[in-house]
Design a protein that fits this description.
This protein is an alpha/beta fold. About 45% of the residues lie in helices and about 15% in strands. The chain is built from 9 helices and 7 strands. It has a 7-stranded parallel β-sheet with strand order 3-2-1-4-5-6-7, sandwiched between helices. Helix 1 packs across helix 8 and helix 3 packs parallel to helix 4. The radius of gyration is 17 Å and the shape is globular. Keywords: Mitochondrion, NADP, Oxidoreductase, Peroxisome. GO terms for molecular function: oxidoreductase activity. Its main location: mitochondrion. Belongs to the short-chain dehydrogenases/reductases (SDR) family.
């Protein structure tokens, strides 16, 4: 279904971004790995080059690009390289994110800046840069890894800055889906449960993984969305809800600790 399609995925060197990339690679898709890890990180596994090797092994074509989404010129350069290499861009996945689950007084200003820069501004600028190319595709999609906008204060009280930044990504979906209706599909995807990644290990400490699902559930849900027609737009999708609608019954396969 995605054979020959070009996906531009931010933060694809590890975790959820890489899982989505590998799922598309199995169809023979072209993957632009737009992430900032070129040298191995002391605590997080994977670089853009190790991810590229995995994508090629899975049957895809990979283009690793050093991209910090805080730097507009790096986004522009990677998009130009992608178009030059693969002839265009069909799908953008805004997956790169910064997280600090801290209260207002505990969140340092540099952390606030990081979350606003990566999550909101990075998503907005990457979308803006890719859109002229997406409009030329037969079935273009933008997919943001961001939540439904639930205004219940419980989602704000413990990590106000983080929630604002993720809802900023969701507002990009709301606005751009309407602005480009009929031209480019724009949707949001969010997990029902915590997802086990290296980043989560750093946040949650040991033992947290028993409460989590594997990144595969988001990869499968993303694949469902990205293979739908561009008329499927403006949706805020929860992974499990969509997969149940698609006929998936066994969710234990996604659990780190089944049951």
């Amino acid at each position: 279904k995605l054979a020959g399609c070009t996906l531009f995925i931010t933060g694809a060197s590890r975790g959820i971004g890489k899982a989505i990339a590998l799922k598309a690679a199995k169809d023979g898709a072209n993957i632009v790995i737009a992430a900032k890890t070129a040298e191995p990180h002391p605590t997080l596994p994977g670089t853009i080059y190790t991810a590229a090797a995995e994508i090629e092994a899975a049957g895809g074509k990979a283009l690793p690009c050093v991209v910090n989404v805080r730097e507009e010129q790096q986004i522009i350069n990677a998009v130009e390289k992608a178009v030059k290499t693969f002839g265009g861009i069909d799908i953008l996945v805004n997956n790169a994110s910064a997280i600090s689950l801290t209260g207002t007084l505990e969140t340092e200003t540099k952390k606030v800046n990081l979350m606003m820069d990566v999550n909101v501004r990075g998503t907005y600028l990457t979308s803006k840069t890719c859109l002229p190319h997406l409009r030329k595709s037969r079935n273009p999609h933008i997919l943001n890894l961001s939540p439904p906008m639930n205004m219940n204060p419980m989602w704000f009280k413990n990590h106000c800055a983080y929630t604002i930044s993720k809802y900023g990504m969701s507002m990009c979906v709301l606005g751009m889906a309407e602005e480009f209706r009929g031209e480019v599909a724009v949707n949001a995807l969010w997990p029902k449960t915590a997802i086990h990644t290296a980043a989560l290990d750093m946040l949650g400490g040991s033992g947290i993984e028993k409460q989590c699902r594997k990144t595969d559930i988001l990869a499968d849900a993303a694949y469902c969305i990205l293979t739908k027609p561009k008329s499927f737009t403006g949706n805020f999708i929860i992974d499990e809800v969509l997969l149940r609608e698609e006929g998936v019954k066994d969710f234990d396969v996604y659990a780190i600790a089944p049951g």
